[in-house]
Specification:
The chain is mainly beta and 146 residues long. It is built from no helices and eight strands. The protein has strands at residues 31-36, 49-54, 59-65, 71-78, 98-102, 112-118, 123-129, 135-142. It has a four-stranded antiparallel beta sheet with strand order 1-2-3-4, with no helix packed on it. The chain has a four-stranded antiparallel beta sheet with strand order 5-6-7-8, with no helix packed on it.
């Protein structure tokens, strides 16, 4: 960003583009349903990292970024077996709209706390992540739709 708040450059990110390996995203992934660029430096390399939701893959992608805003590496968290969120008892996210926010930027040596919204099931999903993107712990809270 420029000091006046305008965009100085852009970097497309999609399957096989901008450092994301080919065949990482499904053709109907709806990659970018929600984006959290304020999570901080998750892997401790001094560069900001970005969290991106994929609606149809029911997944959070942790994008560890390079200086030129291309992707250095990708970690996928999902409700699938081994995807990270199954340890929280989270299921039923397939095809729903959900958003994500970092509750506070990660400081070196500290985990990052995330909250995700599962609108169709009226749930808030809280997760605490290690620097490598694995889930430490968390909880699922049902909220009233009234």
């Amino acid at each position: 960003m420029r000091p006046d708040g305008t965009v100085s450059n852009t970097q497309p990110l999609s399957d096989g583009v901008g450092g994301i390996p080919e065949n990482t995203l499904a053709s109907n992934a709806q990659f970018g349903t929600a984006i959290e660029a304020g999570a901080g430096d998750l892997n401790g390399d001094g560069l900001r990292d970005v969290l991106v939701l994929s609606r149809h893959m029911s997944a959070v992608f942790i994008l560890h970024m390079n200086v030129d805003d291309t992707v250095q590496s990708v970690r996928q968290l999902s409700t699938a077996s081994g995807g990270g969120f199954e340890s929280l008892g989270v299921s039923g996210l397939n095809g729903v709209n959900f958003g994500i926010a970092a509750l506070s930027p990660r400081q070196p040596g500290n985990p990052v706390d995330l909250v995700m919204t599962d609108y169709n099931n009226f749930r808030l999903i809280f997760a605490r992540l290690h620097a490598n993107g694995t889930v430490i712990d968390g909880s699922v809270e049902t909220v009233s739709n009234g």
